[in-house]
Amino acid sequence: MTKEKKSEWNSNITFILAMIGSAVGLGNIWRFPNVLYSNGEGSFMIPYIVSLFLLGISFVLVEYAVGYKFKTSLSKILFKVQQKLEPAGWFILLIVFLITTYYVCVVGWDLIYVILSFTKVWGSNPDLFFSNNVLHSTDSITGIFTIVPTVLISIISIWFITWLIIQRDLNEGIGKVSRVLLPLLCIIVVVIVIFSLTLPGASIGYMQIFTPDWNALTNLNVWLAAFGQIVFSLSLGMAIALTYASYLPDKAKLVDNALIVAFSNSGFEVFNSIGIFSILGFMALSTGLNFNQLVTEGSGLAFIVFPQVFNIMGPSSQIIGPLFFLCILFAGITSIIALLEGVCYSISEKFDFSRKKTATIVCIVGVLISSIFATGAGSMILGVFDAFLNNFALLFAVLLECIIFGWIYDFDKLIDTLNEYSRIKVGKTWKTVIKFILPICIIGLWIQGVYTTLKDGNPVSLTIMTILTIVLIIVPIIFTKLPAKSKNYYEDI
Ligand code: PFF
2-481 is classed in which CATH architecture? Predict the structure, then answer.
């Protein structure tokens, strides 16, 4: 960052591990199995692979090329592309920051479960335990005035861990943590998957992944779901790839790196879901419950269905339970630090703050916002944040980046940057994808997202969404108007 020497990855491996760490997160572990199951099971792999190649990798390449070419932060890049685009940069970063505030809370819930899983205190009704004993959920918004101490402590702990990592030098902090946590995460997942395959009934579960429902392929929503999963899983539009690529030393093989990261991320989620499905197969066989009652998404799968599974698993749950929650914890932490890096980089460049000072300010503001989720109404507000920011704001950010770099900026320069040292080259097809195909798909997903979000909306959620919209308009303008402390912010790169 500006006050210190410009950060640079100490090796390509560190960059790749940090990138995989940013992509592998809750989306891979608990979102993918449900999306796959609800959208044609085995045949879902076709739209998924098409979306991965055509849209996911194409967009990651844009971020890589831009970050690598400009070697600076998102807000400054957009200022350089065209001065009046700077607010768009702060807008995208604010979306990312707000997403992080609730992502931290979910990882905080998981931290609680890492501890609980040793004793299985959730008892015979994990559903009730989760909402009454962990979240202390209230049905009404007035619950916002009741703090839930355990959740608050776990949120503060996650923010503190995050601060410890991001305030350090790039390679000492993010680099080292990715080098340690990612291999550990892979080992844990391999152990869980191998173990789950030995369970009675496993084949009932994993066969679901290999049983195609070909009719699903004619359903547009299935294609949109595949694309939506790629957006979430590869963290598209969050300026993570852009920021991490800006730290790459010269002569980087950008296309090769992008392919390694994208394949590892998808490989991880497919492999992991074999384990999740096998465990659910075991549950279906043991309890006689219907399989589709078990495949839920998100917190329902991790904090309700899995504790139920551990209840009937016998002594091995004493090891598999903590490992499962640890896996979510590690995947979550490597994603959180990546989400924040782009935000911190722009702030420290504009205001000439040190890495430590920026990290401290960002984490303190983060704790304050995340505290809203540590109240009785926390999980309800979190649901609204998630629906609004993911279905609506984030897709808008991806679209904005496509328009800025595909239409406003001279796209051919990006093709040259990518091809300079890469073994695999990109060409005109890539340009067509970014300029036309990707924006059309995003608009489709966006319309679907707006429809579902508004359809499910009640007065409280609509009020929260209105407040978020106002914040997303005002704060970027303020950040743009604030004068840069560092003179070279306005100079040519
Ligand atoms: N790609 C990561 C995941 O799948 O969890 C990180 C992430 C994606 C975080 C999307 C937040 C988000 F909205």
Answer: Up-down Bundle (1.20)
